[in-house]
UniProtKB/TrEMBL annotation, chain A:
Pfam family, one: DAO
Keywords: Oxidoreductase
UniProt keyword 4Fe-4S, yes or no: no
Coiled-coil blocks: none
EC number in record: 1.-.-.-
Protein name listed in UniProt: NAD(P)/FAD-dependent oxidoreductase
From TrEMBL, chain C:
Protein name: NAD(P)/FAD-dependent oxidoreductase
PANTHER family per UniProt: ANAEROBIC GLYCEROL-3-PHOSPHATE DEHYDROGENASE SUBUNIT B
Source organism, top-level taxon: Bacteria
Taxonomic source organism: Falsiroseomonas tokyonensis
Keyword vocabulary terms for this entry: Oxidoreductase
InterPro entries found in the cross-reference section: FAD/NAD-binding_dom, Metab_Enz_Cyan_OpOx_G3PDH, Opine_Oxase_asu/HCN_bsu, SoxA_A3
Chain ranges of the SoxA A3 domain: 376-452
Ranges of residues in domain FAD/NAD(P)-binding: 3-311
Keyword Oxidoreductase: yes
Keyword hit for Kinase: no
Length: 366, 108, 469
């Protein structure tokens, strides 16, 4: 009998499991595949304040710090986190207005974003196009190599005594928190659902209806090239995220949608999204024209009806918890897992959770 | 000295003199000149660029961005990407393009 | 542009498939990256290069002539970087026509659609890593056939030819004939292995005779053939100077080395077709029925990309695939009769081809012998030790190993290192089947951004609606 079973080993499940185990609980962490091979291992790794929803900024700022100091709290595990300035740019008057409005809300939420002139923006980012007419600058930004996330968490989880079961899909939950898997049952006093886009299916095991929308996010990476940029770059609408890694490769993202679903995963890029995304990138950093595109892939991101997170107790079921559906959830992930662990251990979390009562109420009303 | 090493030494002296690596008995178009990393070279017009460089005694294709340096043509069929060069400023795989008069070939 | 059948790859399989389909009245397009169709065996020399005409040249010319006469549309110099459509559609939508995205010879991007798609993408070479294999002067064995046959250039003056399979003797004989010195032929196979293959080769007396002629040339010229051995290291400052075989160093300025051929499955993997691990056929191959149909409707694979069976089997399998596609599209009334001849040719050619493919199957002992500090992935500089460290850290399949190390993330996308890396992962996780393969993704080949982007107006970029604040 485990104290807690955490289902889903993405960044949410891993950080929750780690902090629960560190607090003295006996934890089992199950994933149907390998650790951090879904959203948490294939995302763009941007640690950004300018794309995060304003309500999440206080969390994101704390998590940003955690990523940069990951080796200290994760037994040396790291994701090559790099701090750098972030720029969000506008090419049209309409976008400039959007930029101003969004910067305002995020500033209020605590992100140190200032509007700068195009000339100043190009000082910060010499690779930037001449076509930019306004920019938001946030000195706290950065990025990671998200593909390292599983490798970074794994040793720390094992050191903390977490029992990690990969390739072990949970098929259902019988009363008394008996988890059914192909390899037999696992019982725990408490459960945490951390299933990314599959949270909807997991909630259904408990007869809870929680609609989760699936976004099929596309990413494109270039071959290594000489340095062309040194910031994390986005556009006012949030539909571009662009950065160059130390090894010279440039990652192009921003949430353009491809083809896929929960059952089949991220299946294929849409030609128009692929082209649109890379054109937008080259419009922002013209030197990208010189690159070669190596690979495009897709990952699944979860979104609730109000696009705010689902983190907290599951109403009506004692000792059942949920965590996920966080916009820019990679950025905030480690901190949110820590918060939920605090709540599960009976402490008051440092910052409020995002209970799902609101989403279930909406569902009942509908 | 390793047995046979003298043969190689002799070849290194020969390489600027003629094109000892081009197989005889094939009729080829007339030579054109092009440059590689600033050096002027000649090869029959239309000859595969990777092959032409090998024939000119050049096998080291530059340092590139990748970790295993220097690079050299490995697969000759467009797969390994080790022959990546710039031709007139554009990135190309040398094993997939022909030699043209006046082309300027540089490392990536 | 819309077709009944698109054929990807203009080797013998693709040429025959396109010819067969077009002759029977279908609207067919053939896409090929090289300037002329021919593929790896029958690669046409550059225009204006006129050399002696040999059997391969004649066979290639015959396939090319039939293709040109067939009415199939030929798009050469055209690099296909995108495949899509078919099953790759949103949930609950019916299968779409296949879509191909390509760059033409001027570097412009274009797209086309087809109701059925025949993949004839051939193979690439397997070269298992060894110390010094990244030195300039080390070249693939199949690569050497291209250099010698199509381009008429020697890889060096004093050459060691090493690895496995019939190409060893073909390359060595060709080198001698062209005036190079062959310092040694180093064959992983023992003589007994060749003797065991003989009965199956007897199905193709022409090939057998050719093989014996190659060996006779070597004997006559006194070339040292070291059987049951491999190259264990290469060295030189800046360029290759010597290779190590059975503990001794052999001086050379070129090493042509190949350990077999691997079917090119990037397109079938992209379509999520079912695959199986068949080491005797070159590795992972798409699951096919007797008519070259993949598990994905209206998708077919032929030639060595469907499993290595050699040049003679390739056109026959191309024709079988084309006939199945015509039948499935309702364009061929009497499929049963039409397939008899090509299916018989295929069975016959596959017998000898299969025996050769088995000689070229991956030899796990080579992988086990790689020293820890040897680079396996050239593009990313990943060593055997790093791959094994990732396995020790819990990477239990190719995709996770790739994430943990970057092995296979570079420009070749694992085509060169993949076989070695998969074997290493398999040693730790319980075999190649468990190790699996990297997910297929676009582009199929690196695409220059400039060509992809073209000229555009910012206002025309279809930027989606922004997320809420
Ligand atoms: C392409 C892409 C780019 C992104 N870019 C960024 C970015 O730049 N910055 C940022 O902050 N955020 C980004 N995000 C968002 C971020 O990746 C996600 O919010 C975050 O990783 C979600 O973590 P998670 O643990 O909730 O979900 P996941 O990582 O998806 O983990 C859920 C886990 O549950 C497991 N699971 C599912 N069903 C079962 C079952 N039945 N039994 C057991 N286990 C099961 C899955 O296998 C999976 O491992 C991006 C997302 C995507 C897809
Ligand atoms: C270098 C080399 C030499 C070989 N020599 C011999 C030999 O001497 N004898 C023998 O029996 N076998 C040989 N083989 C095996 C050989 O693969 C087959 O015998 C035969 O060529 C198979 O024919 P195919 O049509 O299946 O493929 P191939 O001949 O390989 O043709 C595939 C074609 O597809 C094209 N292609 C692939 N992907 C794309 C794309 N994305 N866009 C556009 N075009 C694309 C390629 O350019 C190529 O022309 C050799 C293999 C290689 C790699
Ligand atoms: S030599 Fe391999 S891609 Fe050119």
């Amino acid at each position: 009998m485990f104290d807690v079973a955490v289902i889903g080993a993405g960044v949410m499940g891993c950080s929750t499991a780690l902090f629960l185990a560190r607090a003295g609980m006996k934890v089992v962490l199950l994933d149907r595949g390998a650790i951090c091979r879904e959203a948490s291992g294939v995302n763009a790794g941007t640690l950004t304040m300018q794309m995060t929803r304003a309500a999440l900024i206080p969390y994101a700022l704390r998590a940003h710090e955690m990523w940069l100091r990951m080796p200290e709290w994760c037994d040396g595990g790291h994701v090559l986190a790099t701090a750098c300035p972030g720029l969000s740019v506008a090419f049209t008057e309409h976008e400039a207005a959007m930029l101003e409005e969004r910067a305002h809300f995020r500033r209020q939420a605590g992100a140190p974003i200032e509007l700068v002139t195009p000339a100043r923006a190009r000082e910060i980012e010499p690779g930037l196009s001449e076509r930019v007419i306004a920019a938001g600058h946030c000195p706290i930004d950065g990025f990671t190599s998200a593909y390292l996330t599983g490798r970074a968490f794994r040793p720390a989880l094992l050191n903390a005594g977490v029992e990690l079961r990969e390739d072990c899909a949970v098929q259902g939950i019988a009363p008394g928190f008996v988890l059914e898997t192909a390899a037999g049952t696992v019982q725990a006093k408490r459960i945490v659902l951390a299933g990314g886009v599959w949270l909807q299916d997991m909630a259904a095991w408990l007869r809870v209806t929680l609609p989760i929308k699936v976004l099929i996010n596309q990413l494109v990476v270039t071959e290594r090239m000489a340095p062309v940029m040194r910031t994390v770059l986005g556009v006012a609408s949030g539909l571009l995220s662009l950065k160059q890694y130390a090894n010279g490769s440039v990652l192009i993202g921003g949430g353009w949608q491809g083809i896929g679903d929960r059952a089949r995963g991220g299946l294929a890029v849409k030609p128009e999204s692929f082209l649109g995304n890379v054109r937008l990138a080259a419009h922002a950093v013209p030197a990208l024209r010189d690159a070669r595109v190596l690979r495009a892939w897709l990952g699944l991101e979860a979104e609730t009806a109000d696009a705010l997170p689902a983190i907290g107790p599951i109403p009506g079921i004692d000792d059942a918890w949920i965590i996920g559906s966080v916009h820019s959830g990679y950025t905030s992930g480690p901190y949110l897992g820590k918060l939920l662990a605090q709540a599960i251990c009976g402490q008051a979390p440092e910052l409020p959770l995002f209970p799902i009562d609101r989403l279930l109420a909406q569902e009942k009303a509908a | 000295m390793i047995a046979g090493m003298d043969v190689i030494a002799e070849h290194d002296r020969m390489k600027d003199v003629a094109h000892p690596l081009r197989i005889a008995g094939i009729s080829r178009p007339a030579d054109v000149t092009f440059s590689f990393a600033g050096t002027s070279l000649s090869a029959p017009e239309g000859e595969n660029l990777a092959a032409a460089l090998i024939a000119c005694g050049i096998r080291r294709l530059g340092e590139g961005q990748d970790a295993a340096r220097p690079r050299a043509a490995l697969c000759m069929m467009g797969v390994c990407q080790q022959c990546l060069l710039r031709v007139d400023g554009r990135l190309v795989q040398a094993c997939l393009v022909p030699v043209r008069a006046g082309m300027v070939v540089t490392a990536t | 542009m819309s077709y009944d059948i698109a054929v990807l790859g203009g080797g013998p399989a693709g040429m025959a498939a396109a010819t067969e389909a077009a002759q029977r009245g279908a609207r067919v397009v053939l896409l090929e990256e090289s300037a002329a169709p021919g593929g790896q065996v029958y690669r046409a020399p550059p225009s204006g290069f006129i050399g002696p005409v040999d059997a391969d040249r004649r066979a290639g010319d015959a396939l090319r002539a039939a293709l040109l006469a067939s009415g199939a549309e030929l798009r050469t110099g055209c690099r296909v970087w995108g495949v899509g459509g078919g099953p790759l559609v949103p949930q609950r939508e019916p299968a779409a026509p296949f879509r191909l995205d390509a760059l033409d010879s001027d570097g412009r991007s274009f797209a086309m659609e087809a109701r059925a798609l025949v993949l004839c993408c051939g193979t690439h070479e397997r070269i298992i890593a060894f110390p010094g294999w990244t030195l300039p002067g080390v070249l693939g064995l199949a690569a050497a056939t291209i250099l010698l046959k199509a381009h008429g250039v020697l890889p060096g003056r004093r050459v060691v030819v090493a690895g496995a399979g019939p190409l060893l003797y073909a390359v060595a004989a060709k080198l001698l004939k062209a005036g190079a010195e062959v310092a040694a032929v180093v064959d992983l196979a023992h003589r007994t292995e060749w003797l065991r293959a003989l009965p199956r080769l007897a199905a193709r007396p022409d090939l057998l005779a050719q093989g014996l002629a190659w060996r006779a040339t070597l004997v006559a010229r006194g070339v040292r053939v070291i059987a049951g051995a491999g190259v264990t290291a290469a060295r030189g400052d800046e360029v290759l100077q010597a290779v190590q075989v059975e503990g001794a160093w052999i001086a050379c300025d070129a090493l042509c080395i190949g350990h077999g051929l691997v079917p090119a499955t990037e397109a079938t993997r992209t379509f999520r077709a079912a695959h199986r691990y068949a080491p005797a056929e070159g590795g992972w191959v798409p699951v096919l029925d007797a008519d070259q149909r993949c598990s994905v409707p209206l998708l077919y694979t032929a030639g060595d990309g469907a499993g290595v069976r050699g040049a003679a089997a390739a056109p026959a399998s191309g024709r079988v695939a084309a006939l199945a596609a015509l039948h499935d599209l309702g364009l061929l009334p009497d499929h049963a009769a039409a397939r008899v001849a090509p299916a018989r040719d295929l069975a016959r050619a596959a017998k000898a081809g299969g025996a050769m493919a088995r000689m070229m199957a991956l030899r796990p002992a080579l992988v086990r012998a790689i020293p820890p500090e040897t680079i396996v992935c050239r593009c990313e500089g990943v060593t055997r030790a790093e791959i094994e460290a990732a396995c020790a850290d819990g990477a239990a399949d190719m995709n996770q190993m790739k994430q943990f190390t970057r092995c296979g993330m570079g420009p070749c996308q694992g085509r060169i290192c993949g076989e070695t890396a998969a074997e290493l992962v398999g040693m730790h996780c319980g075999g190649r089947e468990k190790a699996g393969f990297a997910t297929g993704r676009l582009p199929l080949r690196p695409v220059p951004m400039d060509a992809l982007l073209g000229e555009f107006d910012y206002a025309d970029i279809p930027v989606p609606k922004p997320a809420p604040i």
